[in-house]
Amino acid sequence: MFLDNDTIHIDESSEGIWSLVDVLLEEVNDEFNLSASILMKCQTAHSCSLLSCSNIDKSPLEGGEKQLVFRLIDECAKYYKGPHVHKISDDLLKKIAPLIKRRNAVNQILFIPFELSSEFFIAIAFQRNASLKELPQSLAPRFSEIILLSKKVSDMDDLINRLHTLENYVKEVGHDFASSVQSTLPKLNNVIKGLYEGPMAIDKIKEAKNEIWAAYRHASNLGLVVDPNYSITNGNHFNFIDVVDNVLNQYQSEIDERHIKVTVECSLPSLNVWGDDEAIASAVSHYLINAIKYSFGSSTIYIYINDVRSEVEFKIRNKGMKLNRDEYPNLWKCGFRGRNAYERHVNGCGIGLYTIKKIIEGHGGNVCCRNIHEDQVEFSFQIPKDKIFMKKLL
Q1: How far apart are CA 166 and CA 188, in angstroms?
Q2: Per-residue pLDDT tens for 223-277?
Q3: Whole-prediction pTM value?
Q4: Pair 347, 278: CB distance under 8 Å
């Protein structure tokens, strides 16, 4: 068997004890006339974690009782590494017996290490009497059934969590669209009522148009978000600087509302790139939206466009809440939102950075984020300018 005579270390379980599995363990106890049982998963030959236990007053992997289970497994494995009926020492039984609810255990236990789906487990069963001299053939399969059930329970829990995430995602998307409509309609209504006339009315209509287009792009992007293998479908040559300028114009009303200033640093009048200009505009838009949302009011957003050899580099910096370094790997995952966003109740649904990453990687590029100084955050991406064969094509 996988156990050996070296010290066996037992870790606390992070999964907890499932009440449903406990009930099944009790049925096994009654069926085979057992006082109590413990079921553990072994990651390696020296590391086990509790899955469940039955008729035990408290988890045997907590506090000082951890060492008792350590001694028990160590003693059984030294005697024989495979499944067997084991007679434990009187000293060890005296220390373990108070943990057993029925208080009628004898010094004879059933030690059952077994393998299931390339994973290792240990079951320990305390007998009520010394009637069993050999292991029943059906006992190990019964423990295996409990393991399989626990896996199904875990899968169901994971599915429920995913559904909750999807529910929150849909609510956030709906909130974004509702906010856009609530912002656009008053402007149009005020123009219709004649509260705005002449150039001011035209400006308000333009703002409403930009907000409608922003909502449209958001809806269009949902198709990209759910596609894990985004590829370029509409490749052509375009001026990258024009794309950035158009995005800034589309979000001018949001910029003005927060009293934010945007400065663009680029020494080139044009920068030709091959790719999907609408998708790149979407990536720039998401970066800009995030910068506006997370910036301090009346601050400045800095945009840098650089021609770096064979690539185009786009950077956007804003003054606002810092990124948590431990969240860096998860920032680009669909639906993920950082602690700061939740704590400060910033609207969003966790799809922007995920969309950006898919678009940029589809263009053969890469994304990056980092904290600058004490109160600035920088997001960036780089894409090849014209290396078509480095990019994914349908």
Answers
A1: 33
A2: 444 355 566 667 788 999 999 999 999 899 889 988 999 999 998 889 999 888 9
A3: 0.46
A4: no
Nearest in space to 112 (alpha carbons), one of 142, 89, 71: 142
With 0-12 / 13-18 / 19 or more C-beta atoms within 10 angstroms meaning exposed / middle / buried, residue 374 is exposed
Rounded Cα distance between 73 and 369, Å, is 48
Q: How many of the other CB atoms lie within 10 Å of CB of 78?
A: 13
3-state helix, strand, coil in the chain (%, to 5): 45, 25, 30
As a whole number of angstroms, the distance between CA 103 and CA 36 comes to 9
Nearest to 311 by CA among 258, 273, 360: 273
Q: What are the structural domains of the chain?
A: 14-136 (3.30.450), 221-390 (3.30.565.10)
Among residues 51, 41, 40, 45, the alpha carbon closest in space to that of 17 is found at 51
Q: H or E stretch including 256?
A: helix 252-257
